[in-house]
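Journal club side-thread
Mid-discussion, someone asked how the predicted structure for our own chain would compare to the paper's figures. Pasting it here so we can look after the session.
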Amino acid sequence: MGRLINGIKQKINISGIKKRWLLNSLILSLILVFVGIAGYSAGLANYYYGGLQSALQNRAMATANYFSRYVTTGYDNYYNSATRFVRDFEDNDKLEVQFISTSGRVEVSTASQTVGYSPQTADIQDAIRSNRVSSWIGIDPLTGEHILSVSAPLLFTNQEIIGVMRYVTSLKEANRRIFIAMASAVSIGIVIIAFIIITNLYFIGTITRPIKEINHIAKKISDGSFGVKIDKKYDDEIGELVDTINNMSAEIAGAERMKAEFISSVSHELRTPLTAITGWGEVLLATPASGIAEIHKGAGIIVKETLRLSKLVEELLDFTQVKDSRMTMLMEQFEIGAEFEEVVFMYTDSLVKEGVTLHYIPPDDIIEIVGDRSRLRQVFLNILDNAIKHGGTGKRIDLMLYRMENEVCVVIRDYGEGIAEDELPLVKRKFYRGKTNARGTGIGLAISDEIVSMHDGQLEISSETGQGTTVTIRLPVKMGL
């Protein structure tokens, strides 16, 4: 039996959610079916036994009343009348009629084998003791048959009990009908349970099959197959889960792609200045002492490339701090306009040489805020550097700083090629460099956005292809630390 059950389990693959679901629903269904069958059986037995009992009681009561009123004027008359009644009784095939003395002994009966026998059933004694009709259902002590007996007291005219008239009927036919009805009910219950199991297996299958597919795809994603997608078949919670995993897979694939691009970009960014430093170092070593101009030029390039390397290293360090939530702000009260003007001044001369005009509109008043001076300076440098790299073709960059109610706004706009609409939501993501060929790691803007957020501010970017890009930095004006 155990092997058979295990074999069935293996064939229908009952495990996990399917097993728990089936067990829970099957146990509940079995309880409901059992209670239903038990209630139906009890009601059916009560219907058959009750109806038969009620009919016999009415019949026994009518017969006993007849005997008590017209027959039992004396014992001899009673005995003779009982004998005639038994002899003329027409339902011998269904009922046995017994006339029992007050001592409990059968004196006259339609079944000769019971004459002289004392049944000793509760209905006889109860009828004699209570002087009313009494019934009993049980096993006949003489025949071992399941019977229903009804006993009615027989009275003299002075209300003295002369004996008991007892009807006895076999419950074999009633039991057979009850058994057939119960068997039908059990069969219906089995059909209901089988239907529940089949429908549950089908319904659970609509849940477990997609889950298995989702699990299979999730394992593929965890093994490195980023970007794979699951076919969406349902518009419900399973469908929402499929959408979430598909989006996650696409996000991971994009992140991995940007990560690869970032590593490639960093490698290139490191290689270029290192190559220049190494090359000019070798040139300087080979240059005679008289070549002062050559030495001066080489030293300048080495310094420039070294600063470039330092900036790259600082960006990487800032990135790791942002990623690990270790970046801290050194808050102080300072005048933001002066800090921004220094950044503008740093770029003015070099941009003039490249033919790019900086148009700066300073604030009308002195604006003081509470923040990290060096970190905000880093943000201004990053944004302005991006404007030069990506918008320098427009030959103009507009800068503005002004106060609006309880916030200060720093606006940097270029007139370059702009950012495509589909790329605009992505530009602040880590490693994202878009379709541009300009140098950079793709983390400067992400770091700037994090710094502004840590000042409870916002970094907003708007752009239109062919019209340029506008970056607005909004910072709250707070006085005092």
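Post-session note: Residues 459 and 473 are 5 Å apart (CA to CA).
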